[in-house]
Amino acid sequence: MTPAAPAEGTVLGVDVGGTRIKIGVVGPTGELGPHLSLPTPATPDEVVARIAQHAGILGARAGLAPTTPVGVAVPGVIDEAAGTVELAINLGWEQVPVRELLRAALPGPVRVGHDVRAGALAEASWGAGRPLAASPGGAPADLVFVPLGTGVAAAVVHEGHLLGDRYAGEIGQLRVLEPVTGRHMRLEEVASASAIGRRYAEAAGIAAGAGPDAREVVARARAGERTAEEVLAGALDTLAQALATIVSGIGPLPIVIGGGLAEGGETVLAPLRGAIAPRLGAIPAPPVVPARLGMWAGCLGAGLLAQHGDGPDPVVAAAAASSSSAPASASDRGSTWPVGTGAGAAGA
Questions:
Q1: What is the chain's Cα-based Rg?
Q2: Does CATH number 3.40.50.410 belong to domain 136-289?
Q3: Where do the domains of the chain lie?
Q4: Rounded Cα distance, 67 and 79, in Å
Q5: Of 87, 220, 223, 300, whose CA is between 20 and 30 Å from 165?
Q6: pLDDT tens digits, one per residue of 270-317
Q7: Please, which residues bridge with residue 15 across strands?
């Protein structure tokens, strides 16, 4: 059966993570069409080959032209102008000309961006930022997006634009005090989702790789298991050290927590609020809320980059374009195809 014609401005978004690649068809107002999640291969060439293969498969399923723009979001320190990954610790990449490799493998235009910055744009445009916005169709609310996954990073959206250069947001590399031993460690070695699972296994005497993931640790903490409670509390208190510092510099903007840990709800968010507030002194405590786009924020953000090509941050335009649509939760997305009609610029 021939798929229905996709709406104008429909593109492909790709989120390259440390363990999974997420690829999806992204509609002009943030609808997620056919999508899939795949293991991340070991080398840049293998990653590019996997993206090219499955972008072609999904594009064909959605009725997209082979030359449909593709946005690709990757972690680490990214020179977006050059399309180069300067350093991605969780991928083991250094000085990888990823845009050049992708352009050689894909027939259409390609735009490369930072995964967390792309996710922040998507959350501001189509997710958590919409109910926080001052007026429908206007600039989305200012916010700080903090996804917790293989690593930890942050991105700040202010007046519809991302703040900072390519080094901004790499908070996972900050040296913080580890809560048990008092040693200085990188934040993501304590507070990332992967670290929470690993630290729980160590505390419980479980063999490496055989313990629960962070979601399960949160579930066990909710059920009152002491080891899980202690590991989770230590991770959130350590994360609060970094977030309180951010708030002291930019003010009490809403903090949007993404990644799998956000699904823990108040088991995660309440202690995080409680750990941030006492560190702020006279500064008002910011709202701390869950992301709305779930694990697909980076993919949707990559699609947003592709829709708007090499122009300025597309968040204001996207918010205006989607103002007539009701906000969709992650569970709503992907349930209907083709995407709704709406204007969307294509280019990358």
A1: 19
A2: no
A3: 11-127+294-321, 136-289
A4: 24
A5: 300
A6: 999 999 999 999 999 999 999 999 889 999 999 999 998 765 555 544
A7: 22, 73
- Which tens digits make up the pLDDT trace of 165-221? 887 888 998 999 887 788 899 999 999 999 999 999 999 999 878 889 999 999 999
Joined tokens for residue 196? 């929470």
CATH architecture for the domain at 11-127+294-321: 2-Layer Sandwich (3.30)
Higher pLDDT, 231 or 149: 231
Cβ atoms of 36 and 42 closer than 8 Å = no
Q: How far from the centroid of its chain's Cα atoms is residue 1's Cα? A: 34
| Amino acid at the residue 134 | A
pLDDT of residue 345: 30
Query: CA 338 to CA 234: how far, in whole Å?
Result: 44
152 beta partners: 148
Strand ranges (DSSP E) for 47-194?
Answer: 70-74, 77-79, 84-88, 93-96, 110-114, 143-147, 155-158, 161-162, 175-177, 184-186
